[in-house]
Amino acid sequence: MLDNFRDLPAEHLQTLKHSVAWITVLIAGADGEIESKELAWAEKIAKIRTYAASDQVLDFFKAVGVDYAEVLDQTVQSANSDTQIRTNELSSKLSQLNDIFPLLERNYAIVLYDSLLSFAKHVAKSTGGFLGFMTVDSEEAKLIELPMIHKIG
Questions:
Q1: From the CB of residue 70, how many other CB atoms can be counted at a distance below 10 Å?
Q2: What is the pLDDT along the chain (153 residues), one digit of tens a residue?
Q3: Is 136 exposed, middle or buried (0-12, 13-18, 19+ CB in 10 A)?
Q4: What is the per-residue pLDDT for 130?
Q5: pLDDT at 144
Q6: Do residues 18 and 78 touch, judged by C-beta distance below 8 A?
Q7: What residue spans define the domains of the chain?
Q8: 97-121 burial, b if ≥16 CB within 10 A, otherwise e?
């Protein structure tokens, strides 16, 4: 399982897997309100990626999918109600990836990083706009590039 992570300490793998739920709550809550339709859409995206992601990260998203709903629920339940504090706390958790990505094979780290950025953008586009989709509000726009994670590539 997860050949790209076989030499990674278990806590690093857990941080990587949980990062998908953290990104969900970070982006969904950027405007001050975590809407259930944003969470539902993010769950669908995460589920789709368990079978339709790039071949390189397919196993990763399968591993994420095992307990994504539980991790997401736990993240929402423990998230601070103050938007700025919540954003800072989740940004701090996500910044841990800066210590983990260099431990991965470089090309794999690039693909995984790009996949997390793509995931963040899909969550951001889940509300607003035409029929409730395809609009990113200004607060989400500040976060969808995941500025707390150093660009790889």
A1: 10
A2: 468 888 899 999 999 999 999 999 999 999 898 988 889 989 998 888 888 778 889 999 999 999 999 999 999 999 999 999 999 999 999 999 999 999 999 999 999 999 999 999 988 887 654 444 456 667 788 899 999 999 987
A3: buried
A4: 43
A5: 92
A6: no
A7: 8-143
A8: beebbeebeeebbbbbbbbbbebbe
**Cα dihedral 82→83→86→90 (10° resolution):** 180
Write down the pTM of the prediction: 0.92
Please say whether the beta carbons of 150 and 98 come within 8 A: yes
Cα radius of gyration (the chain) = 15
Q: Which amino acid is at 106?
A: R
Using H for helix, E for strand and C for coil, what is the string for the chain? CCHHHCCCCHHHHHHHHHHHHHHHHHHHCCCCCCCHHHHHHHHHHHHHHHHHCCCCCHHHHHHHHHHHHHHHHHHHHHCCCCHHHHHHHHHHHHHCHHHHHHHCCHHHHHHHHHHHHHHHHHHHCCCCCECCECCCCHHHHHHCCCCCCCCCC
**Rounded CA separation 145/153 (Å):** 14
Q: What does the block give as tokens for 64?
A: 């994420």
